Amino acid sequence: MENTDRSNHQLRRGLCYSNVEGKKARSPSVIVIGAGMAGIAAARALHYASFRVVLLESRDRIGGRVHTDYSFGFPVDLGASWLHGVSKENPLAPLISRLGLPLYRTSGDNSVLYDHDLESYALFDMDGNQVPQELVAKVGELFESILKETDKVRQEYSEDMSIRCAFSIVFERRPDLRLEGLAQKVLQWYLCRMEGWFAADADTISLKCWDQEELLPGGHGLMVRGYLPVINTLAKGLDIRLNHRVIKIVRRLHGVKVTVEDGTTFAADAAIIALPLGVLKSGTIKFEPKLPDWKESAIDDFGVGVENKIILHFDKVFWPNVEFLGVVADTTYECSYFLNLHKATGRSVLVYMPAGQLARDIEKMSDEAAANFAFMQLKKILPEASAPIQYLVSHWGTDINTLGSYTFDLVGKPHDLYERLRIPVDNLFFAGEATSSDYPGSVHGAYSSGLMAAEDCRMRVLERYGELDLFQPVMGEEGLSSVPLLISRM
């Protein structure tokens, strides 16, 4: 009896902080900050585990860097649009399958180099002349050989360097790998595509860490109907507060208190911070007490890249029946590429996808100027192109809710930053693609990190209450069912 009274007293003391109005709480409580994929996954998992969950989101919509737009009359993704790893090993596959959402496989290659198969490219020079497909394939093979040589450079040098610097060393050692003329321009295009994968320029990408992520089998698949149905399904029934921008997070021994922009406060036993790394780096959120030095250094040492989409809707299709159109040039900055959504969706839409410094420069333009810039790139290769009837432009680098697209490894910084960012600080837990060392920069990485943070949080909170049940799953049984993925190909 004495032990029961003591545990009840501890339970009441632990929960009294978690209710702003001072009423008795009946179950553990958590505040999740950020309604992107990671935050919604975490909130859904804790909701299944019978926690009281409040999800705070600064935008007027959910999804974060998943943003499916319907203003054209059909879905197009301004943010994430691929499932990287079209297989049952992908943690998102069961949910996508159950929803009956079709995927269009753009590549069967489990590689960061080719999210499209080589035969699906149509490359052109600045004068509008198409590059022979044989040359495209030959340079593609050469590009892979160059990257293998950079691995030798990595093994020999103890200090890190950029991918671009490693390329220079390779060309000094292997003159036979140097290219000239049109072939050199095609090589720059391949490097430009690599920069697009990391949303960063080659002179900032770490040689030591660029290929350390885990690639799931099955290749790459485009979400034909967009990612929003996945987000909406996970968010169903959750207590989500939109237009709630967090400005302060206070942690104490028995709870956390979160303050939003209008002064409203929320209190709970713990909090999961599922914010984009760019927002954490900006310092717009005050932590009290401040985060430990090791956590702050992890946030500071990460790179945040920018890749945007300029989506052009035309009244008819006038371009080749391929998945990818590209412009080759002397530098990666001048190169460009367009994703052809007509292959996957039947819509007359091209998506221009600038990355790195080019993306940052275009963000300084108005939407109209940005759309016109993208159209001018298209006119270089297709002079008879008709003007778009509609356009959409993303701003992931300047949007105060993201301040970047996704993370990448900076030169000279350790790869364990992902793990250091993930590790909890007292009753603050962290989620998001930047906390996933295996799957950074991906939707399934964000999703997995949300589930992991939810489980860590559940264990920690219930352990304090003496109610820990090691056999209680975070997700419901329906998360385990298996339905085949709906995959098409050209």
Report on the structure:
Keywords: Oxidoreductase. InterPro entries: Amino_oxidase, FAD/NAD-bd_sf, Flavin_amine_oxidase, Flavin_monoamine_oxidase. By secondary structure, this protein is of the alpha/beta class. The chain has a domain at 2-64 and 227-304 and 406-488: 3-Layer(bba) Sandwich (FAD/NAD(P)-binding domain). The protein contains 14 helices and 23 strands. A six-stranded mixed sheet has the order 7-17-18-19-16-20. The protein has a five-stranded parallel sheet with strand order 9-2-1-13-22, with helices on one face. Strand 3 (68-69) and strand 4 form a beta hairpin. Helix 4 (133-156) crosses helix 5. The longest helix has 24 residues, at 133-156. The protein is globular.
